[in-house]
Amino acid sequence: MTGEAAVNERIAARRAEVRRDRRRRRLRRTILVTTLLVVALLGTLVERSSLVALASIEVTGLERLDEATVLAVGDVELGTSMLRVRTGRIHDAIVALPLVERVTVHRVGSLGLRIEVVEVSPALTATFAGAPWLVSQDGLVLGPGEAAGTPQVSVPGRPPVEGERVESRPALATAHAVLLGLSGPMEGLVVGARAVNADSIELDLASGTVVRWGDATRGDEKARALGAVLEDLDGLVVQTIDVRAPSAPTVTP
User: What are phi and psi of 201, to 5 degrees?
Assistant: First the structure.
């Protein structure tokens, strides 16, 4: 074999090897793409399968909220693939509701979900134009409704909206501060109140006496002045007791 023929043979062998390498790379790519497609298809089939579908949902702790609202906000429904259920997202959506103080979301077994809700407790019932609204201890309007055992106050003006803060309604803010600032025996004496305006609150005692309290300032002094007057009256019922100037309370028989 001449030198030229040997060179040509080596070039031909090299070209053949390059072609084989190209075919092997194409085959590997084809196998990889096919495998990925099969995995994706299987994943889709599994996700849509009843074998991984959410089979049970338990919601606890509801009093004023209804279960349908909680599930709608959390975007949770039976039949949803458990592969799509994200407990953190569900928690964040539900805890954003004004009536919710805290929430815990658990997986139960492989196909169940438990949502434990703790609602914000109402501390005050404020009535606007005959319609009662619940207000929390920290001044959040929870929504329409009544709660037994909470102080009652009538407030002028249009009704608030759920999620509103009492600070946006001066008369309500004053009533909230005054009524929730009462404590001990004094708290038990008050059966109702009226917010005349932001600077004037009147309290109704169980005896029928009206206490002209004024604004939310000097609450402790006013409570002491009222207590002293009631002690002096020794059970005598009067029409009004004015403690707006706690150092000089007045009584209207």
Answer: -115, 135
